[in-house]
Fold this sequence. Notes:
This protein is an alpha/beta fold. The protein has helices at residues 25-36, 68-75, 92-105, 126-140, 156-159, 181-193, 225-236, 247-253, 261-275, 285-290, 297-303; strands at 17-19, 41-43, 57-59, 80-84, 110-116, 144-150, 166-169, 175-176, 213-217, 223-224, 241-244. A 7-stranded parallel beta sheet has the order 3-2-1-4-5-6-9, with helices on both faces. Strands 7-11 form a two-stranded parallel sheet. Strands 8-10 form a two-stranded antiparallel sheet. Helix 1 (25-36) crosses helix 6 (181-193) and helix 2 crosses helix 3.
Amino acid sequence: MSSPSRTDRPAPDAPIVAVTGAGGAVGGRVARRLARAGVPVRLLGRDPSRLPELPGAVAAPPAPYGDGEAMRRALAGAHTLFLVSAHESPHRVREHTTAVDAAVAVGVERIVYVSFLGAAPDATFTFARDHWHTEAHIRAADVRHTFLRDSLYLAAVPAMTGADGVLRGPAGDGRVAAVAHDDIADAAVTVLLAGTGGGGDGTGGGATRHDGRSYDLTGPEAFTLTEAAEELSRATGRTVTYVPETREEAYASRAHYGAEDWEVAGWVTSYEAIATGEMATVSDAVPRLTGHPATGLADFLRRHPDSYRHLLGTG
């Protein structure tokens, strides 16, 4: 993994990058990398206690995406907004558009938005439709922008596998080029540094090559869930299997979670998007942006044994 290592203090007037979800898996990684690069960072997160303490970083007061006034206060004076998508909800698009409008209202010049691979109004994966609507709103706003369309997270592969060693869902023989959180963060920081003094003149001019661009962030290969189960078997030393389900079986096997209909639909359609081929895209954006190879599933599992600890039966 490569990431910026410069630790000098930023200039007093260096552009501020506001990082949302700074207590989470993507936002936290990005915030840490930017701080190491000497970029002044403003940390936004739902839970202030989860925000990291970083040199050159200041925590903003809690500002839910859907609270325009709070978002305007949190973003005032920031040059760039790194917008990690909100947690899935029936109101997520409205939350995103409120946050975007707040950023534009206080003069944020640039938004780098974490979208999803294949975002489209008719995407099979229902949550990918939210991302398309958010992208459309950002495009219509008076703001420079870049979209990072990440694939399924590699960490989701072991997480979707039950303690019984079964990975089940209506994915058929479709393929998915899942991507590592670290690769997303490295790519994001490359894009962000181009407009914050880390990649040019400090005025944002270095970012122009990324303006209006969408980058598909994927792993180095697309694999079936049968192949994923085989890789998990090698990593865990036990037999892990993939069991294809019909749509009806998928809904039935998830009914015991007691989740709302829209949420279960998101879970089920994520597999169906694999089956339709919408997740099979393999892009070279990670190596192009970061200068290092994208992480594959086998390497991810070697580096992150905690991701499959629930499959080892060791508590």
